[in-house]
Each structure stands twice: as C-alpha cells, then as structure tokens.
Specification:
The chain has 330 residues and is an alpha/beta fold. Helix content is 30%, strand content 29%. The strands form three sheets. The chain has a six-stranded mixed beta sheet. A five-stranded mixed beta sheet has the order 8-7-9-6-10. The chain has a four-stranded antiparallel beta sheet with strand order 13-14-12-15, with helices on one face.
Length: 330
C-alpha cells in the first residue's frame, strides 16, 4: 500500500459479508480474496485500491480514525458506532441489500402495552417500585435516544452481543431493542413490536472519511471511479432500454407518435435513427429508456403505433450528468 492507495473497508463476517461481495461483483468491482483468512484483498479493476476486511461494528471507528477512506456498512451500525463529533458521512445510501429495522419489542404477556406511550407509563411504574425498566440491546445509543424521545425516561441499558430475543424469558432484561428483517424471530420468542417502536430502517450504505481537494490525486481519482461505478449500476437497476423499428416519412413524424404518451417518452425523449432498408422503404429505429414499472405499457404502446421487432435490454450502468455520491464525499 502507498500513500496513493484508496483503502476500502468491507464486512469480514455477519449478514452483510456475502451480499457485499456480490454487490461489488455486480458493479464490475469484484474483490480478489484468496481465502476467508486473508484480511487484505485487491480489486483487479481498481489497482490503486486495497480492501481491508473488518467487523461491521468496527468499521465506523476505522473510518473515524482515518484508517480507511471508504467503507460499506449497515446504516444502523454506522449511526450507532461513529464518533459523535466526527466528520464521517454517508455518501451513497440504499445499496439494495441488508434491509432491516431497528425496533423496540416487549413480551407478548404485556397485553396492555401496545405503544411507546404505554411503555413510558410502565417505566414510571417500575420507578415507583424502585426499579428501572431493563433494556437489552446492541444499540444503546440509538435505542436510548428513541426511548427518551418517546417519554420513556426511566430505564437502564443492558449491552449484549448475544441473542437478545431470549433476554426477557431468561430474566436479565424486561424488553429488547434489536434489528430485525421480518419480525419472525421476535414473534417466535413471544415478543411483539409496538406502535412507534421502530427506531429506524437500515440498509447497507457507503460511508467515507472527510476528503478534500488537498488529498493525494490518486486517492481522489480512485474514489471517484469506485463511486461512479456503484452509483451508475444502482441507477440502471430501475430501467430498461426498449428499441423498435417503425415506418415513417421523417424522424420528426415518428418522434411525434412516440411522445404522445408518457409510457414511451423515455427519460429525455426517444432516440431515433434511420434504418437503411434495401427495398427503399423509410424505416426508423426508436429507442427509449423506461422505468421497470412502465416496461410492458411501453412495449404495448410501441406495438400500437406500428412498432415491430421490439427488443428489450437491461443496461448495466446508467451514468447521470453528475456523480452525486462523489459530490457528497467532497
């Protein structure tokens, strides 16, 4: 590694490890890691980048202390573990995997507790008996803030790295604050979510330390390439490119037909080019970029106005006029 090398941290284990590697491959940024015991790896398509595998909970701290430049981590882990007065930031949200919710859950047997306001009342009852409501969680900062913001003023946090769902049944906590995807595990352990009990929705994201124009140019250029590839791949995910052949006297006439309906007007209008027909007829190739939800209506509309040989392709990248994530990084 040199001073011009971009350092990228990725999860070394846990629920995000394999989805992160798959995401990197889909962006054209496959990571070359000989085996799972190697904690340093490379990205062949980005020779000036080095991958450093870290535990998800440690990644925010590594970014804070400038040990790495960029990282992929769950938003929940980032907000819980980053330094409060630090200048790290999320530069690219919603990578499409690692979706979950951080929630407060109480025992099913608490039939009168259905909302955070009910929980606030319970905490007062506990205090009147000389006790605090005990909350087992891996997210003391986020859970504590949510409880206080909802009027639950009397509680003690029990940090735990183990299985939280069994805490109330085992008697070392009264309620839990934990991450869940579907809520199934919570329900299976005789717990329930309550109204206003969702602390946040989380998803994998890209975070960075503060970078500026004074940084080594090699680091900035590699960071830009990495973010451009990720952002363009994510943006392309919601679109299809539809092409059809149509008869017409002029390209303007064909464009008028196509643009009469929003289904076929595309992102910025259709691209129309001449098809050189050996029989002398005037044909044009019409190409539009449409959202996934408009794909079938667009195909139907093109057929309706005389389109034939309709072809659909999936763009791998869709670059916008500006890389917004790089702008946030700077």
């Amino acid at each position: 590694m040199t001073n011009s090398t971009l350092r990228l941290a990725l999860p070394s284990s846990g629920a995000l490890q394999h989805p992160t590697m798959s995401f990197m491959r889909s962006c054209g940024l496959a990571v070359s890691r000989p085996n799972d015991r190697r904690y340093i790896a490379a990205i062949p398509s980005l020779p000036n980048a080095t991958v450093m595998f870290q535990r998800s909970s440690d990644i925010p701290g590594k970014v804070d202390e400038d040990s790495v430049d960029l990282a992929i981590v769950g938003k929940d882990q980032f907000l819980e573990n980053r330094r409060e007065d630090g200048d790290t930031r999320i530069v690219l949200e919603e990578l499409g995997f690692g979706r979950s919710r951080l929630v407060v859950a109480v025992p099913d047997s608490w039939i009168d507790v259905t909302s955070m306001s009910d929980l606030a009342d319970i905490s007062v009852e506990f205090r009147s008996r000389g006790q605090d409501l005990r909350v087992a969680t891996k997210y003391p900062r986020l859970i504590g803030r949510h409880l206080l913001a909802n009027g639950v003023n009397y509680f003690s946090v029990i940090p735990s790295d183990g299985t939280l769902e069994v805490a109330p049944a085992m008697g070392f906590a009264d309620i839990i604050g934990d991450i869940t995807e579907s809520g199934t595990t919570i329900r299976e352990n005789r717990l329930k979510e309550i109204e206003s009990g969702t602390v946040m929705r989380s998803e994998a994201c890209v975070v960075s330390r503060k970078l500026s124009e004074s940084e080594d140019g090699g680091i900035l250029q590699t960071a830009r390439l990495l973010l451009e590839m990720m952002e363009a791949h994510l943006h392309a995910g919601g679109y299809f490119e539809v092409t059809a052949n149509m008869k017409g006297e002029t390209d303007a006439e064909v464009a008028e037909y196509v643009m009469k309906r929003s289904d076929t007007s595309g992102l910025r209008g259709p691209t129309i080019s001449t098809v050189f027909n050996p029989e002398g007829e005037r044909w044009f190739a019409v190409t539009v970029m449409v959202e996934e939800k408009r794909l079938l209506p667009a195909v139907a509309r093109l057929r309706e106005i005389g389109g034939s040989s309709v072809r659909v392709s999936k763009p791998h990248y869709l670059f916008q006029s500006e890389c917004k994530s790089y702008a946030r990084l700077m």
